[in-house]
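Today's session is about reading a structure prediction critically. Students often jump straight to the picture, but the first step is always the sequence itself: look for stretches that repeat, for charged clusters, for runs of hydrophobic residues. Only then move on to the predicted structure, which in these notes is written as discrete structure tokens rather than atom positions. Here is the chain we will use throughout the hour.
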Amino acid sequence: MPKILLVEDNPEQSAFVEELLKGERYLVDIVDDGQAAILQLKCAEYDLIILDWQLPKLSGVEVCRQYRANGGMAPVIMLTGKMTDADKETGLDAGCDDYLTKPFSMRELLARIRAHLRRASYQQETVLVMHGIRLDAGNFNVTKDGEEITLLPKEFALLEFFMRNPDRVFSSDALIRRIWDTDSESSTNALRSALRRLRQRLGEDGENSIIENIHGVGYRMRSDAT
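Below is the predicted structure for this chain, in token form.
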């Protein structure tokens, strides 16, 4: 599941966009000022950022500029009431990838999000296959050896993340930052519970599970079958 940071100081618009994005099964974090956005981008990873131009404490343009200067690579969609060519040039020069002028169509926002995620490495493949597991991210569907498996959203998100990053070891903190919303009740216990359920649903809860616990380090999904 793609994870999106929404930076918007208008509570009504923020709540509306959040509901829209979660309806599309995106993970969403929300902050309402520029300084909070900078801090959030330092402690979590996102697949896409939706950034209002006019923000308290720090403008969206400056947030984008600092994010790029710090090596941030996720696509940035700027929301703006500014319409002059000079303003658009300023935003693009700061590192934003796209912009929507307010008021905008929510259908267009979703279309822009899908387009940028398709171009990003995260969305290159919709269907993932490994160890007899077939995960269809577009249809929220998982099968194991041809049998359909029902997963809860966090279990699905964990499996998808591991399948997109085979053999890489991730700490508990890294997985929590990637899979859980920042304001959710996330903890290492919640992660362990989700992993235990995922292994059980896959029939992989024994010592030789394809999702390994690397003691003192974290977790990984092996790409090789043993």
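Discussion point for the tutorial: The mean pLDDT is 86.
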